[in-house]
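Example complex used in Figure S2.
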Amino acid sequence: MRRVAAHVFVEDVAAPAVEVGEADFHHLSRVLRLRPGEAVSASDGAGWSRLCSWAGAPLLEPAGDAVFERRPEPEVAVGFALTKGAHPEWAVQRLTEAGVDRVVLMTTAHCVARWTPADVPRRLGRLREVARQAAMQSRRSWLPAVEGPLAFSELVGAGPAGVALAVPNGAALSLATPTVLVGPEGGWAGEELDAVRTHVALGPHVLRAETAALAAGLLLVALRAGLMGEVPAGRAGEP
Amino acid sequence: MRRVAAHVFVEDVAAPAVEVGEADFHHLSRVLRLRPGEAVSASDGAGWSRLCSWAGAPLLEPAGDAVFERRPEPEVAVGFALTKGAHPEWAVQRLTEAGVDRVVLMTTAHCVARWTPADVPRRLGRLREVARQAAMQSRRSWLPAVEGPLAFSELVGAGPAGVALAVPNGAALSLATPTVLVGPEGGWAGEELDAVRTHVALGPHVLRAETAALAAGLLLVALRAGLMGEVPAGRAGEP
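Predicted assembly (478 residues):
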């Protein structure tokens, strides 16, 4: 998938001719300036991909059969508190590149920003488009889910199995908790720290909220990909 | 160092009254709006720090002795190819938060952007200021070095000991190569790949150059802090 000139998401990778959407066609022809014959991979965002050939038209010429790539396990998710400005877009884009499966926006006791309910569909739609574009750039065959905003209590629910909170001086990350939640600049409230008892550190220094979210995603995915190993509990993060 | 209201770099932490520069004084009083008595840590950027108390003036009241924090070992460095726009600032800022000791800008065979020699002092000065501010936010007592731009051959020199190149499908990262170089979007040239034979992967997907630079810094620092472990050579990254 890496040597292709472009990667694009389509409705149906198994069709006799694979059709690219209008905006993507524009991007491939005008921005990337593909030339006829260049290799393009098409994916349905749910594991199926197919090698195609650029023909200068919205219909790609299939150059092979559709192949399926299993979703990596465990599912890796990062939740972060709503922030102002363009930061959610930034985080969604980078977390998608990193290979996270699920990005969840949340509201916490100390988080300042809120979305009005009427604004949610537009904002979520925008973030999903950011994720789609980042997944094209990073050649993913699975699109990440982008969800929220959920209240911390809703997200954690009754059984926070598999969930860890990022804190300074926490323990080492583990795939036993493949969902990591990153708090707002104002930090976690006491009841939040009590509700989820696994506390992990993403590094030795204080990180901005959005850098912390990306760190959580990069470290979890590196663990899952076997590029890093877990350290025994208690070895790291002792204050 | 984490519970203080602010962290600031000063010339001399051992002085009877610790003096804050004009711009930092403005930041602490007007932006962070510190109140008299709030705790501020002052550092000289070379390991010495001192807990102080805000007195509403450029002179901080020392609230303890100066303490020295050893520089963590090994020195962790990330080099990345010059990019256009604000990306170097973005990378320097985040790499400083992550805890990298040295950030090196480089030019490579396939990198598009160049700095004119006359521009170098201004641009480097700006990046060092970005690093200083990020180090204040992330409470570092050591300022990172920001260097360059160096040609790839100059940087790697005759003995590229301890240096690895980031590539797709590379091996797992190791502190045996605590300097990781990230190529431009155009990739490494063949002779560059030959000059440095340790090739490491930062994740399973294609990363933008600046995300890759940050990933290298976060992963190396997590390894050094004992938050992640190295995997045996050859286990990861097999195509």
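Chain A has two domains: 6-68, 77-224. The first strand of chain A starts at residue 6 and ends at 9.
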